[in-house]
């Protein structure tokens, strides 16, 4: 059986957005894609409100860890997706000839206010990420199915 293509989701801190995207894409297409995330300056933890926001939609990322993109330099990465939102943030670049997408999202780690006000920001960003990455997963599934249909005929 062929190894699924590796999709690497990158942001700067690898504490919120990239983990939410990883969890959502893995839930939507983990059977056809190997989904991972990393950062250029890993925060060293996965934000508890990101874990909580995904738990609310039935996705468990509590075992995720913050990783540096260097861990993936020796792997064959098919697609890199950056999710840094603000133009002033340094979104990491990944070497090699790979498919690249940039879908920017606000960083919920910068949310202020009470925990519930911060959680509202995490939910909004989660829902934005979910819309984009579930659509991406559907497109990848369609691509896999059309390849299967072509090879069968």
From TrEMBL:
The keyword Ribonucleoprotein does not apply. Transmembrane segments: none annotated. Residues 5-139 form the Phosphotyrosine protein phosphatase I domain. SUPFAM superfamilies: Phosphotyrosine protein phosphatases I (SSF52788). The keyword Ribonucleoprotein does not apply. Keywords: Arsenical resistance. Pfam families: LMWPc (PF01451). This is Arsenate reductase ArsC. It comes from Luteolibacter rhizosphaerae.
